[in-house]
Amino acid sequence: MSRFVDRATERFDLGAGDWVDLRTRITFGERNAIQAKVLGRLPLDGDGRIDPSKRELDLGAANVELMRLVIAGWGGQGFCSHADHPHDGVCEPRPVTTENIVALDETAEKILTEIGRRLVTKTPDFTQAPSPSRTAEEADPPSTADGSRASSSAASLDGVGTSSATLTRMS
Ligand SMILES: [Zn+2]
Asked: What pLDDT sits at residue 22?
């Protein structure tokens, strides 16, 4: 089995003849691009120095980047660049761009949820069921300040997935 990400897509039917094609896997480079969006731009203070206390995690931007990278195409009348139907000629979908993704209605949350369901993240923790012995080991070590700091790190793809799931549940 190849260790390079294959660019296979799956079609998600949005109803009313509209669809979106979603990649089922993302590359190392794409994961990095999404994580870079989570962290956002370096916060600079008045003197141009980096002020880490001003850094805020931007999960919204990360979700948009995730969608831009995972959506391989979309189509149907709902994505048409013409506002009025019927019109002459066939429907021409707007291009999949950051600008058009942020302009979506609640379809965006629908697509995000579907990405969360379909995207295969090749991380051992996700794909392997924990063995009983391993679970016991993990439950054993005393909780330290170090451990809690590590688990609160949001700069990972899990963070992106969680945020999209939360977004959807709230709507
Ligand atoms: Zn049209």
From this structure: 96
d(CA 13, CA 16): 9
Alpha carbon of 95 to ligand 1 centroid (Å): 13
* Ligand 1 centroid to residue 16 C-alpha, Å: 13
pTM for this predicted structure: 0.65
- Exposure letters 141-169 (e unless 16+ CB within 10 A, then b): eeeeeeeeeeeeeeeebebbbebbeebbe
Does residue 169 belong to any structural domain of this protein? no
Domain hosting residue 125, numbered range? 9-138+146-163
Q: What is the number of other CB atoms lying within 10 angstroms of the CB of residue 48?
A: 6
Compute the distance from residue 19 Cα to the ligand 1 centre, in Å.
14
Say how many Å lie between the CA of residue 91 and the centre of ligand 1. Answer: 3
Cα(57) to centroid(ligand 1), Å: 38
Task: Please write the tens of the pLDDT for every residue from 33-55.
Answer: 998 888 877 777 778 777 777 77
CA 8 – ligand 1 centroid, Å: 27
The answer to the question of residue 89 being in a domain is: yes
Number of domains comprising the chain: 1
pLDDT tens, residue by residue, 114-166: 999 988 764 434 334 445 544 444 455 554 444 444 433 333 444 444 444 33
